[in-house]
Design a protein that fits this description.
5% of the residues are buried. It contains three helices and no strands. α1 packs antiparallel against α2. It has a domain at 22-63. It is 64% helix and 0% strand.
């Protein structure tokens, strides 16, 4: 039995801001995970794995245009 395309098809309309919100939440989740893993591996004496997660964190922050050359140049004094 042939059906018309409009029959038995659920149509979902997603507004662009909803997609942006979902992407943003996913980005924040990945950033949080990278921070947590870098700290956890550092704290348990696995500096190689900590460095890998720190590099992932830097990549994620660069992708969000947060970690920029200007930001790196203006690091606060500790």
């Amino acid at each position: 039995m042939d059906m018309h395309p409009s029959q038995n098809v659920a149509t979902v309309h997603i507004h662009d801001s909803m997609v942006d919100d979902m992407t943003s939440k996913a980005d924040r989740s990945a950033i949080s995970r990278a921070v947590a893993k870098a700290i956890a591996y550092h704290d348990c004496g696995k500096p190689e794995k900590a460095a890998l997660w720190a590099a992932e964190l830097a990549k994620l922050l660069e992708a969000k245009s947060i970690l920029t050359p200007a930001a790196l140049a203006s690091q606060p004094e500790c």
